[in-house]
Amino acid sequence: MIDLTNTLTRRKFGLGISALAGATAVGALPAFAESGGSELNQILHRVGLAEEQAVLTQRIPMCAGFIMLNVEPSRFITNINDAKDRFEQVLTGFRSGDDELNLQAESNGEVLEALSAVEAVWPTMRSAVENIVANGFVDDADYDVLARSNSALLFMSENVEKRLVSVYGSSANELALFIAVELAARQEMLTQKMAKEVTKIALGFKPEENRKILTQTIILYENSLQALIGGVPELTLPRPPEHIRLALLEEKSRWSDLGPIVRGIANGEEAGILELYSIASQEEALLEAAQHIEHMYEEMGVAG
Fold this sequence. Notes:
Elements: H1 5-11, H2 17-20, H3 38-68, H4 73-96, H5 109-135, H6 140-168, H7 172-202, H8 207-230, H9 242-266, H10 273-299
Helix pairs in contact: 3-4, 3-6, 3-7, 3-10, 4-5, 5-6, 7-8, 7-10, 8-9, 9-10
C-alpha cells in the first residue's frame, strides 16, 4: 500500500486551479486499471459517497438562497430537506453501515477521526435546515448559520474523502481511477457552489467578494471538465474511455448554455429574475450529468 498523502498534496488532486489551468493531453498518459474487483469497487463507492457529502454542503445553502429569493421556493424547500436527509444517512452509514447505500461501517482510525470532525459541525447546519422546512421560509438567522458553516463542512467532508484515498489506495493504476472518480464528483460540487454564489450575489451578500469567488469557481469547473476530457499526465489522469468521453462532451454542451449566464453575473451583470430562474432550472440537469459521469467511473472498478 502506498501513502498517497504527499501525492495528493503535490498533484492538487483536482483541488487547485493552478494544477488544472491550461491542462492538455501532452505527454505520456497513464492508463486506467484493466481489471478491478468488489474491493476496489467498494472503495470507489466510498470515495464517491464522501465527495457527495461535499456536494450537499453546497446544495443546502444554494437551496436556501433560492428560497430567500422566492425562486421556485416549494421545490427548493423539498430539495433542501432531501439534501439534509441524504447527508444524515451517508454520515450515519459511514459510522454504522447502511445496506441501502451498500456501505459497510468504517473501521480505519484516520477516516473515523475525519468523520468525527464532520459530526461536530453538521448538527448546526441540520438544525437550520429543520427550521427552514418547518417554517416554510428562510430567516436571516438560519441563512447566517448556513453561510458560516458550509465552507468548514465542505473542507471537512473533502478531508474524509482524502483520508479514504490515502488509506486505501494501492497502486498507480488504481490511483488513476481514484483521481477520475474524485474529479468527476468534484464537478458535482462545483455546479452547486456556482449556483450558491449566484444567490449570494443576488441577495446582496458581499456581492463583489462573491463575484470574485464565483469567477474562481467557474475557472476550476471549466479546467476540471477539460482535464477529464483530455487527460492530464501530471495528475496521473488518463483520457476517458469513449462512452465516458461522450458523456463529458454532453456535460460540456449543457454548460455552454448555462455558462455565459453565470459568467456574466461573475463579471458584474445583474443577477435578475430571468437569470435566477434560468440557473434554477438548469443546475439540476448539470448536476445529474456530472453524477452520471462519476457513476460510470465507479463502475470501472468492477471486475470486467
